[in-house]
Design goal:
CATH topology of the largest domain in chain B: TIM Barrel
Number of helices of chain A: 21
Number of helices of chain B: 20
Bound molecules: zinc ion
Strand content of chain B: 5-15%
Strand order of the largest sheet of chain B: 1-5-8-9
Strand content of chain A: 5-15%
Largest sheet of chain A: 4 strands, parallel
CATH architecture of the largest domain in chain B: Alpha-Beta Barrel
Helix content of chain A: 40-55%
CATH superfamily of the largest domain in chain A: Metal-dependent hydrolases
Structural class of chain B: alpha/beta
Oligomer: heterodimer
CATH architecture of the largest domain in chain A: Alpha-Beta Barrel
Helix content of chain B: 40-55%
Shape of chain A: globular
Shape of chain B: globular
Number of domains of chain A: 2
Largest sheet of chain B: 4 strands, parallel
Chain lengths: 500, 507
């Protein structure tokens, strides 16, 4: 530092007055500081230990980023998530973020949260039938041969597995159906549609298996466990609430599915009292007509009536570009808006000015509480202001946007701009199991290292965690924030004590 | 009693229904208002169209919508979301492109002198006599004109290119291979997905080979004339050229000093204008590499001052060039730049990076503090809200080069380019093409096309195009008189262009 300064002083002494030089340097500093003061997290004041912890974090961050800056290929967020997802686990910062209390997950879809290994394990359950067809396969639980149409023939998965030549090989093949992970992501997923096709195939394949009532409840229980282990204390789960079935073929309705969920949450909180529970956002498919949406709304109201504390609100899901635009349902949604809170997906697109992009206008007009993704919002300056003014939180899912091909290099993700302007943001993970990411830690790490400014520090991380509590539908927020603060302090203390 | 209950139920039903409709209307109103307000903010929205322009606009928008609708609902991927090289040869088929090609585009304000010309034209220049070639082991190529074997170092040995070409079995194949040294174009996916440093290395290699070729005085003259011709044919009437000044040589090895190159630019431009009186001309932005020493930069700035006195019509200002992440930050040069800022106008590159919060990113701050007239690229600016506001307030134009940012590995899908936001905000933007020769792009039409169809909103129409062209006049370094003449010529050409669109109609 000193030699450069001396050099500067020498260099300027010949012609420019030192005053003039210092003026520019001061102004530069002010401008930079003004931006830092505007960034998400700026309102937080550090305690002494937090200052120490922050130094540790920022030292590690600078070291890693400097390496990346010098040789981008060695450490490269321009590549696909699949190509760096395991490498990031080597980072001490990843370890830290993993341990960090992250608040809540506010945007996740129920059957996309657990890893393919978990799903593979489920195929070891009794009474699971399989039908291998050309490219796909069907899975279903039943106490006798299923009546569902099968292009080839139904067999017990157990029989198929043990008559196969190589069980390991058999399982490896099976596992491929439960993940989007591939070796050559750029070739396999060359655009939004090719990625979504594979993505939807995952749900088509696993859906009938998960919808076995016992499997469903177990999956959700284990989801909560995984979420808790990733240091998340609460989750708002989106579900299409498909009908569940029993081994003997009995089929239940959507409301029963919601009841199943509630039962599992209650049990889980009893088993793990440090977890703050879950709420449900009923989020059925958007590729339907207005009459169906009317039916959806009826179901939503009925769930709300029966489980007012468990039900959070309503949303519509599915690939936005190909789905029905929100404006087609405007009259149904306006009519129900006083009774239902909305948590709409919108602007999960990179088309500019098309119907999917303009869903953003509709959901804001419909007074949505939060917006899922809002990827396109950065192209709508007025709406961005409106979102700030009304305190509508954006649920940003960076890795999801990479895997589902909205953006290649995360450094081009609009979240960078949202963070710089202190737009209310919460980080979430959408369907992390399907791309083999952690419930939330990967998304936090990549946001911190790849998206946010090099200057963004622990304040940003803490604010993002706090935001997820502020913008949740938890009733007693003071209590949960208080509990969060306790955990945060513990985390900071261990960080300082362990001297990373 | 009973009837009155029924009556009140019906009444309340009616009221609910009625109020629901009112509420719905209010929402529709909200929505429409938002949409309209955004439309009014967009770049070009303040332009009033004539009746004829409206008619032309309908035709243009018919083709644009058709093109976009085809990929939106259809399962065919949107071409423009891929690397430029993947669809570049398909562009010519687009009706929108064919219209844009004919459009008068004003000036190109961000162009580097050595990369103005396409590879085919460069290949033609290798047919000039006395050109020696040195094919090196690492696959790179050195070129030098000389009346005897060049004294310049060649680790293998110098051969006359003509001899090599004549001795080859297949001249076409030979030329095709040679051509590769003049362009970054490739179909190799690995190279298309390379990181920014790797891509820039390839870019520098191409740059060095071309520079070899055009440092020879007679070839430089031909090169420059042809370059102006290409811009002119692409309906660009004015170019601001970023160039370092360096010695150029004659066949016998004698050299001209750096200022000679400036004179050459002026001389050739004059000749070109003589033959094309509606061409406005060029201006020079003198550049220095951003890895230079502070002394070297001071020397270049002194040269700029000299030019400003001797050739006042030519010089626009000064800039620093080279890969921003790897070069020195602007702040290292602050002392010299502060010293010069009252005498020399700056046109800095800034924020040509996607690293956030790094020195290259923060060059944007220095550029603005130093009073830059425009900023080259400003790719990272969207992440700096205060700076964005300051620049808008100071009316500092952004020189956008979308295709350059794709080819040089900043962004893949152009729909994620920050220009979309700048256009939506109505910020002062000009479109340029940086080094179109290096990636076989049109001088300016490809950049206009990709911006119009791939980056801007689907709703952006002929007003956006016209405003972009007008901006290039407004934010140029021309004096008021020459701007006035430029506007006049532009308006004349624009009227003809609008008529042509209408004549072309919907077929
Ligand atoms: Zn989602
Ligand atoms: Zn440039």
């Amino acid at each position: 530092m000193w030699p450069t300064l001396v050099y500067f002083l020498l260099a300027i002494s010949c012609a420019v007055s030192i005053d003039e030089y210092e003026n520019v340097i001061n102004e530069r500093h002010d401008l930079l500081q003004r931006e830092l003061d505007m960034m998400l997290g700026n309102e937080i004041t550090f305690s002494d230990s937090e200052i120490k912890a922050n130094e540790i974090v920022m030292h590690l961050k600078a070291k890693e980023l400097d390496r990346a800056y010098r040789s981008p290929y060695a450490y490269n967020f321009t590549r696909h998530f699949f190509e760096y997802k395991d490498a990031v686990k080597q980072s001490p910062l990843y370890e830290i973020i993993k341990k960090m209390p992250k608040g809540a997950i506010l945007h996740a879809h129920d059957v996309g949260l657990l890893s393919p290994d978990y799903v593979l394990n489920m195929t070891y359950w009794d009474n699971l039938y399989v039908c291998f067809e050309e490219d796909n396969m069907q899975l279903i639980f039943s106490d006798k041969t299923p009546k569902v149409t099968c292009g080839t023939q139904w067999q017990l998965l157990r029989d198929a597995r043990y008559t196969s030549i190589d069980v390991e090989e058999f399982d490896a093949e099976l596992r491929k159906h439960f993940t989007l992970l591939v070796d050559e992501p750029h070739e396999v997923y060359f655009d939004v549609n090719s990625a979504w096709n594979r993505f939807q195939q995952y749900f088509i394949t696993t859906g009938p298996m998960f919808c076995y009532k016992l499997a469903w409840e177990q999956y959700f229980y284990d989801t909560l466990k995984a979420v808790r282990e990733d240091n998340v204390m609460y989750i708002e789960i989106r579900s299409t609430l498909p009908p569940l079935y029993d081994l003997n073929g009995e089929v239940y309705d959507s409301i029963a599915t919601a009841e199943s969920y509630k039962k599992v949450v209650d049990q889980f909180v009893k088993d793990y009292p440090d977890f703050y529970g879950a709420k449900l956002i009923y989020a059925p498919m958007r590729l339907v007509d207005a009459a169906t949406v009317k039916e959806y709304i009826k179901i939503a109201k009925e769930i709300k009536r029966r489980m007012p504390d468990f039900f959070a609100g309503f949303d519509l899901v599915g690939q936005e570009d190909l789905g029905t635009p929100t404006k087609e349902f405007l009259s149904e949604l306006v009519a129900a808006k006083d009774e239902l809170d909305y948590f709409f997906h919108a602007g999960e697109t990179n088309w500019n000015g098309m119907s999917s992009d303009e869903n953003l206008f509709d959901v804001i007009a419909l007074e949505t509480r939060r917006i899922g993704h809002a990827f396109a919002l950065v192209k709508h300056p007025l709406l961005l202001e409106e979102v700030k003014k009304r305190g509508i939180a954006l649920e940003v899912n960076v890795i999801s946007n990479v895997v589902l091909k909205l953006v290649g290099d995360v450094r081009n993700h609009p979240l960078a701009t949202f963070l710089a302007q202190n737009v209310p943001v919460v980080l979430s993970s959408d369907d992390p199991g399907v791309w083999e990411a952690d419930p939330l830690s990967h998304d936090f790490f990549i946001t911190f290292m790849g998206v946010a400014s090099r200057h963004a520090d622990l304040k940003l991380l803490k604010q993002l965690a706090l935001n997820s509590l502020y913008f949740s539908t938890i009733k007693d927020k003071d209590r949960v924030v208080h509990e969060f603060e306790i955990r945060w302090t513990k985390f900071i203390d261990s960080l300082v004590r362990d001297k990373w | 009693m009973r009837s009155s209950i029924i009556y009140s139920v019906v009444l309340s039903l009616l009221i609910t229904r009625y109020s629901a409709r009112v509420v719905l209307n209010k929402y529709m109103l909200d929505r429409t208002q938002f949409l309209e307000e955004e439309d009014n903010l967009q770049l070009g929205s303040s332009l009033q169209l004539t009746e004829e322009e409206n008619e032309a606009n309908e035709i243009l928008m018919y083709w644009k919508n058709k093109e976009i609708e085809a990929s939106f609902k259809n399962s065919t991927p949107f071409q423009l979301s891929k690397h430029f090289f993947k669809y570049k040869n398909e562009i010519a088929k687009s009706k929108v492109y064919q219209i844009i090609k004919k459009m008068p585009k004003g000036g190109a304000l961000h162009i580097h002198a050595s990369m103005m010309l396409d590879a085919d034209s460069l290949l033609e220049l290798t047919y000039e006599d006395h050109l020696y070639a040195c094919y090196m082991d690492d696959g790179s190529l050195k070129l030098h004109f000389s009346d005897a074997v060049p004294l310049v170092l060649c680790p293998v040995n110098w051969k006359l290119l003509k001899d090599l070409r004549d001795a080859s079995d297949d001249v076409e194949q030979f030329d095709a291979e040679l051509r590769k040294h003049f362009s970054l174009y490739t179909e190799n996916d690995e190279l298309l997905n390379a990181d920014i440093n790797e891509t820039w290395e390839r870019f520098h290699k191409v740059y060095r080979t071309i520079k070899n070729l055009i440092t020879y005085r007679p070839v430089r003259e031909k090169y420059f004339y042809k370059a102006l011709q290409n811009f002119y044919n692409d309906n660009v009437m004015y170019v601001e050229i970023r160039s370092g000044l360096h010695d150029i040589y004659e066949l016998d090895g004698t050299t001209h000093d750096a200022l000679y190159l400036a004179e050459l630019y002026e001389r050739i431009t004059k000749r070109f204008i003589d033959e094309h009186p509606d061409f406005i001309g060029i201006k020079l932005i003198l550049t220095s590499g951003r890895w230079s020493s502070i002394e070297k930069v001071r020397d270049t700035i002194n040269m700029a001052k000299e030019l400003k006195t001797n050739m006042p019509g030519l010089l626009a200002g000064f800039d620093l060039v080279g890969q921003e992440d790897k070069g020195k930050p602007l702040k290292d040069f602050l002392p010299v730049l502060i010293e010069a800022r009252d005498e020399i106008d700056f046109y800095f590159h800034g924020g040509e990076t996607n690293w956030f919060g790094t020195t290259s990113d923060e060059n944007l701050f220095d550029a603005v503090l130093l009073g830059t007239k425009r900023v080259g690229h400003a790719y990272a600016l969207l992440k700096h809200p205060t700076l964005l506001a300051t620049m808008n307030q100071k009316d500092i134009a952004l020189e956008m080069n979308v295709i350059s940012n794709v080819v040089l590995s900043l962004v893949k899908d152009v729909r994620n380019h920050p220009l979309a936001s700048y256009l939506a905000l109505g910020y002062p933007v000009v479109l340029s093409s940086d080094d179109p020769g290096a990636w076989d792009a049109d001088p300016l039409s490809h950049d206009f096309y990709v911006t119009f169809v791939g980056v801007a909103s689907v709703h952006a129409d002929i007003r956006t195009l016209k405003q972009l062209a007008l901006n290039s006049i407004r934010y140029s370094a021309l004096d008021e008189d020459r701007k006035k003449r430029f506007y006049d010529i532009f308006n004349e050409k624009w009227t003809i262009f609008v008529k042509k669109i209408i004549e072309g109609g919907l077929n």
